[in-house]
Design goal:
The complex is a heterodimer of chains A (399) and B (356).
Chain A: E1 5-14, H1 20-28, H2 57-64, H3 72-88, E2 98-103, H4 109-121, H5 136-147, E3 152-156, H6 162-175, E4 181-188, H7 192-200, E5 224-232, H8 233-238, E6 245-254, H9 267-280, E7 289-291, H10 298-312, E8 318-320, H11 323-326, H12 333-347, E9 349-350, E10 372-373, E11 379-385, E12 390-397
Parallel strand pairs in A: 2-3, 2-4, 7-8, 7-11
Antiparallel strand pairs in A: 1-5, 1-6, 4-5, 6-12, 9-10, 11-12
Chain B: E1 3-11, H1 47-52, H2 55-71, E2 78-82, H3 88-100, H4 109-112, H5 118-127, E3 132-136, H6 142-155, E4 161-168, H7 172-180, E5 207-214, E6 223-232, H8 237-250, E7 260-263, H9 272-280, E8 288-290, H10 292-295, H11 302-315, E9 334-341, E10 345-352
Parallel strand pairs in B: 2-3, 2-4, 7-8, 7-9
Antiparallel strand pairs in B: 1-5, 1-6, 4-5, 6-10, 9-10
Helix pairs in contact in B: 2-5, 8-9
Classes of the chains: A alpha/beta (399), B alpha/beta (356).
Chain lengths: 399, 356
């Protein structure tokens, strides 16, 4: 179980780009993907800014080579997963034990909303096609079937840490020899269910979010999908392409404080970060950059920052929340930020935390405001924390 | 490394919470939706806490805490939950209100409780357990993947005691929708006559079961889990047969070594022939029982089967309702569970009586 696990491929679709190159360019040019609601049909269209993928379902379907009647969640997922697999370019993949480990929180609820509308609003019976892929696992299977992956197919749903957990499990299954290759990450489409849910919790900023700012006022919801292709040492050694990095650390802990709020001392966050360092045999000062969970809510940023202060003081790495670009993509966020962390460690990049005006007064550190290129990045820590106290941290290291 | 089931607890449409199913007659149902029999929670939870809990949370939490009590454990190293449907009632409530109220005047309560990881999270909160916590939501594999994750944690030596299980609930609304897909029988049948109805569809169930898994042997362990295997495919009976034979080869056993087979036959004429083919072929000389007439069909019903199997091994006897099964032969030392959900999610769980 001591073998290394490498990242051989990546794929992403988010509000800042429909593939890796576009997202990277947007990060470099400080181009946020947050805007008024354009694609989702909701009464909140002009009140709440969100970070939508800039394609409608027909355009997504065209890219995916699929039907536009399928859930937006599945369309986003297949586009990112295919990009990741193509990028990994594993020639003999058919002979290997390959897994698809996805994650989401909304499943096909975008279509279920139609079913419910027909049933409860129009008094009709509802079209079964609209509800057949309601389950989270149904979305994963649609995509796994399309990718022709059958050895191991699963779905994890631990709120906003979901896809960090699917990546963590993928690494463990490869280390245990149960898989050779894993496409791991997650997806969530923006839907009325989550938009209204977060809105009732009063944690949505009606302006563009300002993570880790003293005057932060909530999060912006986003949508997207992102996957990384993880491979065993044996598969890695046979690849003709350069590896992006090694997935060296991972840990999952629980805050056990409140169903939706983080504890003031960020205990779960602290345990996840500490656990990931332990697995990787690294010390806090070995981390060059933290891709923060950084939602922009009063509660998260305070808890996460408190845990970082406790663990890292006085050796603070560079830090930023790329949710200032992509919004909070919920079940996809661990995957989206795994891709950004991998880009960081591969190309020596630090991404800016947009719109920061006044650093939080509680902490002796500030987050990064500018895009930095060329500073050696050895290890990147990526945080994903969710409802239910689910906290997961991953560490991406240079090969 | 051996994985032991130190305790098991289950709330189901049968009297499983206190284990009466083993001595009493089974519950009979004449509607096609079997709901869980809930225990007297006042003995388990404080009244104020109870009022705040949704049905699936109180069922899941009661099972989880009972499981720990049985094992005499207070601290655990991981909580892993499988749930195909998640918190169905609260998800429905919130979605229905969004539609009916045109996204206005909504209250957050049902949204907060709708998240798929709510049961696992509430167990952690109740136990103040800061350790590993994961939730699998993958249809007919949700429970088995929770087991696989748990066993992996134990093998990695990242945990010594893991609470793993499943919780799924059914609502009248979703039942009516799923019935339109043909999952359940159109006309009511008795659950006890499920395998003789000769019609399409099954009966619907729900339930929760949790298991305390440990790498450490104990004299009072219920059973040990030797292997868990899944196959994701619409497989024909020859393919299933080949897969099971490969499983036997891998684990160096033959059908002669198995004292009891528990199958997930569900009375649906579209899938029962698969079970019949397997039973009449590789398991023709084995004692075979089915379990879905007791708990109904649902994606994580195999956790009910595991509860049943571990208790059969523990007490070395079958529940009263299986009185017609030939029992004169051997002890129940090795039990194999074969389930398939909708012909696409095939799972095998092999159990033995615990040994060092």
């Amino acid at each position: 179980m001591n073998q290394k696990v490498y990242i051989a491929g990546m794929g992403i679709i988010s509000a800042i780009g429909n593939n890796i190159q576009e997202c990277l360019a947007a990060l470099e040019h400080e181009d946020a993907g947050i805007d008024n609601i354009t694609y989702l049909k909701t009464i909140h269209a002009n009140e709440i800014p969100v970070a939508e993928v800039k394609l409608n379902n027909e355009e997504l379907a065209q890219r995916a080579g699929w039907s536009s009647k399928i859930s937006r969640t599945a369309l986003l997922s297949i586009i990112a997963a295919k990009e990741a697999l193509t990028d990994a370019a594993i020639e003999n993949i058919g002979e290997l034990k390959t897994g698809f480990l996805s994650a989401n929180t909304v499943g096909g609820i975008d279509k279920s909303e139609n079913f419910y509308h027909s049933y409860f609003k129009e008094g009709r019976i509802g079209d079964l096609h609209d509800i057949v892929n309601h389950e989270c696992g149904a979305i994963t299977e649609l995509v796994a079937d399309k990718l022709n992956i059958h050895s191991f197919v699963t779905t994890i749903s631990t709120a906003c840490s979901s896809s960090a957990n699917s990546i963590m499990l993928a690494v463990r299954l490869i280390k245990a020899g149960m898989l050779d290759v894993a496409v791991a990450g997650g997806v969530d489409a923006l839907v009325k269910f989550t938009l209204n849910g977060f809105n009732t919790l009063l944690i949505l900023d009606n302006q563009y979010c300002k993570p880790f700012d003293e005057n932060r006022n909530g999060l912006n919801l986003g949508e997207g999908a992102a996957y990384i292709v993880l491979v065993s040492e044996r598969v890695a050694s046979a690849l003709k392409k350069e590896l992006y990095g090694e997935l060296k650390g991972y840990a999952n802990a629980n805050d056990a404080y409140h169903q939706t709020a983080s504890s003031p001392d960020g205990k779960g966050s602290y345990l996840a970060m500490q656990g990931a360092l332990d697995i990787a045999y690294l010390k806090p000062e070995d981390i060059a950059y933290i891709n923060l969970h950084g939602t922009g809510t009063f509660n998260n940023d305070l808890a996460e920052g408190t845990a970082i202060e406790k663990l890292f003081h006085p050796h603070y790495p560079k830090m930023s929340s790329t949710k200032s670009f992509t919004g909070h993509t919920l079940g996809a966020s661990g995957g989206v930020e795994a891709v950004f962390s991998t880009l960081s460690v591969k190309h020596d990049l630090i991404f800016p935390n947009l719109r920061l005006q006044t650093p939080m007064k509680e902490f002796p550190f500030t987050v990064e405001r500018k895009f930095i290129k060329g500073q050696y990045i050895s290890n990147v820590l990526s945080n994903s924390f969710g409802f239910g106290g689910n906290c997961t941290s991953l560490i991406f290291s240079k090969v | 490394m051996k994985i032991y089931i130190r305790s098991a607890s289950c709330i189901s449409p049968q009297q499983t919470f206190q284990g009466q199913l083993f001595v009493n007659d089974p519950e009979k149902y004449t509607a096609n939706l079997l709901k869980v029999i809930e225990p007297d929670y006042k003995k388990i939870f404080d009244a104020k806490l109870l009022r705040r809990m949704s049905r699936i949370v109180r069922v899941g939490l009661a099972v989880a805490t009972n499981c720990l009590k049985e094992a005499g454990k207070e601290n655990i190293d991981a909580i892993i939950t499988g749930t195909a449907y998640g918190c169905m009632e609260d998800s429905e409530t919130f979605l229905k209100k969004i539609i009916e109220q045109d996204e206005q005047m909504l209250s957050p309560t049902s949204f907060i409780q709708s998240t798929h990881n709510t049961v696992g999270a509430q167990i952690a909160l109740f136990l103040k357990c800061h350790n590993y916590n994961n939730t699998f939501v993958h249809r007919g594999f949700s429970f088995e993947h929770a087991l696989i994750d748990a066993m992996l944690l134990l093998k990695e030596k990242r945990a010594e005691n893991v609470l793993a299980g499943s919780a799924d609930e059914m609502t009248d609304f979703t039942f009516s929708v799923l019935k339109r897909f043909g999952l359940y029988k159109q006309s009511a049948v008795s659950n006890l006559g499920l395998y003789h109805s000769d019609t399409k569809g099954s009966i619907c169930g729900e339930g929760a079961a949790f298991f305390l898994l440990s790498g450490e042997f104990a004299d009072d362990a219920y059973a040990q889990i030797d292997a868990v295997q899944t196959l994701y495919k619409y497989a024909s009976s020859p393919e299933i047969k080949k897969w099971i034979e490969q499983f036997f080869t891998l684990h160096e056993i033959t059908t002669n070594d198995i004292d009891l087979i528990i199958t997930g036959k569900n009375g649906d004429t579209r899938h029962d022939h698969l079970f019949a083919d397997i039973q009449n072929d590789i398991f023709k000389d084995n004692r075979v029982i089915n379990y879905k007439h007791l708990c109904g069909e649902y994606p994580t019903s195999s956790s009910f089967a595991l509860w049943l199997a571990s208790n059969i091994i523990r007490w070395n006897k079958l529940p009263k309702c299986f009185a017609d099964v030939e029992i004169n032969k051997k002890d129940f030392r090795k039990v194999l569970i074969y389930n398939n959900y909708q012909g696409k999610h095939h799972t095998l769980v092999l159990l033995s009586s615990p040994s060092k």
